[in-house]
Every structure is written in C-alpha cells, then in structure tokens.
UniProtKB/TrEMBL annotation:
Belongs to the phosphofructokinase type A (PFKA) family. ATP-dependent PFK group I subfamily. Eukaryotic two domain clade "E" sub-subfamily. Catalyzes the phosphorylation of D-fructose 6-phosphate to fructose 1,6-bisphosphate by ATP, the first committing step of glycolysis. This is 6-phosphofructokinase. It is found in: Cytoplasm. Residues 4-309 form the Phosphofructokinase domain. It comes from Artemia franciscana. Signal peptide: none annotated.
Length: 366
C-alpha cells in the first residue's frame, strides 16, 4: 500500500479536525498507511516522534473540535532549502511518497515549492550520502495535494476555505451581543475582525449584522471618508437608531496605503460626533471553538477527495488543491491557485483597487 502523510500548517481553523478524520479513515479504507506529521512543517523538519502512524481511533471524537489535534506552526525554517532538505530526508526515511497539506496561502505556497524541488532535494541527499541511491526510484515522485484551511477565505480558485463559515458564525454572534449592550447605552462600537489582507469576514459579517460602516483592505474609502462616515453614523442616529456599529477588517488601509485602525476611527467619531464609543477587538475567538456544520462537512468532503486524488492510478500527479466551486469539489493545479493568490497580493501592494476587486471576483459579489 501507499503511505500518505498529512500535516496542518499556519493559522489553525475550525474544520481541520474533520478534514484529518476523513483523510485517515478514507486512507485506511483505500489500503494506505496514513501518517500524522505533528506541528506543521516544523515536525516534518524535526522528524522523530513528530511523524507517527495514525489509526482509525486516532481521529475518533474530534469532528466537533476546533483547532487541529496534530498541532500547527508558522515555520520559517521550511522557507530555507536547508529546512526542506531535512524534511525530504524524513519523508523518505518513513517511506512516505504522498503528502496532504492543510493550510492557508503561505503553507500551500511552501508545498508547491517543496514539490518543485523534490528531485533536486533527493539528488542532494544521495550526493551527501544521507540516503541510498537505490531508494531514488521508489521515491522519485512525491505526490502533493493541498486543502485550504483558513478563516480568511483569501485563497483563489476556491469559493470557501475551511474555517471561514465558523469564524463568521462566531463574529456575528459576538456582534449580536455587542448590539444589545450598545443599544442599551446608546453607544457606538468599532469591531475589529481578522482576515489579514482579505475583507471577506468583515464584509459578510457587516451584511449579516446591519453594520453602519465597513472598512476592508480591497476597497479603501475615497475622498473625505472621515466626514462621510460621520454623516452616515449621525443620520442613522437621527433616524432613531440607538447605536452604531463600525466593522474594520484588520488589514484596512486608506488610498495611500496607510493603515486605518480601530483606534483611529474611534478618535474621529469622538472628535466629530462626541458619541460614547468603544472598541472590541475580536481576535482569536474567531479562530477557535466548535466548527459549523458547513465546515465539518466540507472538511469531510475535501479530505476524502484528497485521498482519492492520491490513490487513483496516475503515478505522476501534478500537485493540486481541492477547491469548492458552487457545491462541487474540483481539483485545481496548485501552481495556478498559488499564482492567482499571489497576484492579488501584488495588485494590493500596487494599490490598483479596481483590479483587486475584479480579481477577488464572485467572492465579493456585485
Ligand atoms: O490567517 C489566519 C489569521 O487568523 C489571520 O486572520 C490573522 O491575521 C492571523 O492569522 C493571526 O496570526 P497569529 O495567530 O499568528 O497571531
């Protein structure tokens, strides 16, 4: 049978455990050995007890848990070739020729590079006498499949990433709670939500909670936005609203690329409107806790699809990402997804806002 290894990397997200469960159970069903690699890429580099064979029981009673039971890390060492060389040695040492990476943008970019370098990493290991050349034939191909686990929903070519839906549930539940206290005191609240350079969480949470004003990185406010915002907030109050809610995505910027922070927004509101204003930074509560039904189910589906991709006949598979399109799972070339995702970052840095919105496409709607 084949040996499939799975790791979770980067920021954890709700639904990663459901994904792990599906990978282990489907892998075993297909007659493969399944290995956990603990602590993300760092565990692959360190090897030893970090690489451990999993069984059916290893993934029992985890589907409802947030986080990832095999640990995750943001690993700088894997960015260096020397780190990837150690990682390759540990995979060969454990007889692993299939790798599933569950992670965000950075983690899947790393997976793509690892796959690209695989033959040259093996050659270097053989040259240095760290592995025997005879092993080269068996290990000459590493099959790589990516699954996007991230609350940010910032990865191209998939409609949703695992964790986003649960994070949204957490955010709107928190905002609903804030609305009650805000209304009692006739206050204005500024809520900072996560998402890195992607405004999806802020935008959708804003729509779902009737926010008065939303800041997202992809669409920096134009002109005298301070005045526009204040007019909007005060007009809502005049119309009888007892509170105001402003949602700011953590990566928000103005047209010159300067950060727009919750503190900044608060000062503008207090100075101009003299409203009793508070800031709530939701932080990591958005990332933990129980996964929603949606995240559990796409985790299961994507995990199973990843295993099927690896156990199908074709031996030299191009690395792919399991993506959601409509309600269908599709396999997309990893390299294309990574390129598109990096292109958005580039256009963001260039401050070409029209193009950013176009590239984000359907995700943001009209
Ligand atoms: O990528 C997920 C995410 O939660 C982002 O929304 C946020 O910017 C970042 O990770 C926080 O990183 P850390 O958990 O390392 O503080």
């Amino acid at each position: 049978g084949q040996a499939i290894a799975v790791l979770t990397s980067g920021g954890d997200s709700q639904g990663m455990n459901a994904t792990l469960r599906a990978i282990v159970r489907c892998g075993l069903y297909a007659g493969a050995k399944v290995f956990f690699i603990r602590e993300g890429y760092q565990g692959m580099i360190d090897g030893g007890a970090n690489i451990e064979e999993a069984n059916s029981l290893s993934v029992s009673k985890i589907i409802h848990k947030g986080g990832t039971i095999i640990g995750s890390a943001r690993c700088n060492e894997f960015r260096e070739r020397s780190g990837r060389l150690k990682a390759a040695k540990n995979l060969v040492g454990n007889g692993i020729t299939n790798l599933i990476v569950i992670g965000g943008d950075g983690s899947l970019t790393g997976a793509n590079l690892f796959k690209k370098e695989w033959s040259s990493l093996l050659e270097e290991l053989i040259r240095k006498g760290e592995i025997f050349s005879i092993e080269n034939t068996k290990y000459s191909c590493l099959s790589v499949v990516g699954i996007v686990g991230s609350i940010d929903n910032d990865f191209c070519q998939t409609d949703m990433t695992i964790g986003t839906d649960s994070a949204l549930h957490r955010i709107i539940e928190s905002i609903d709670a804030i609305v009650e206290t805000a209304s009692s005191h006739q206050r204005t609240f500024i809520l900072e939500v996560m998402g890195r350079h992607c405004g999806y969480l802020a935008l959708v949470a804003g729509l779902a909670t009737e926010a008065d004003f939303i800041f997202i990185p992809e669409c920096p406010p134009e002109g005298d936005w301070q005045l526009k915002m204040c007019e909007k907030l005060s007009s809502h109050r005049k119309a009888g609203q007892r509170l105001n809610i402003v949602i700011v995505s953590e990566g928000s910027i103005d047209r010159n690329g300067n950060a727009i922070t919750a503190e900044m927004i608060k000062n503008i509101i207090v100075e101009n409107l003299n409203q009793d204003t508070r800031i709530t930074v939701l932080g990591h509560v958005q990332r933990g806790g129980r996964p929603s039904a949606f995240d559990r189910v796409i985790g299961c589906r994507m995990g199973a699809e990843a295993v099927m991709t690896l156990t199908e006949a074709d031996p030299e598979k191009i690395p792919c990402v399991i993506c959601l399109e409509g309600n269908q799972l599709v396999r997309r070339p990893l390299i294309d997804c990574v390129k598109d995702t990096q292109a958005i970052q580039k256009v963001l840095n260039e401050r070409n806002w029209e193009k950013v919105v176009r590239l984000r496409g359907d995700r943001f709607g009209p």
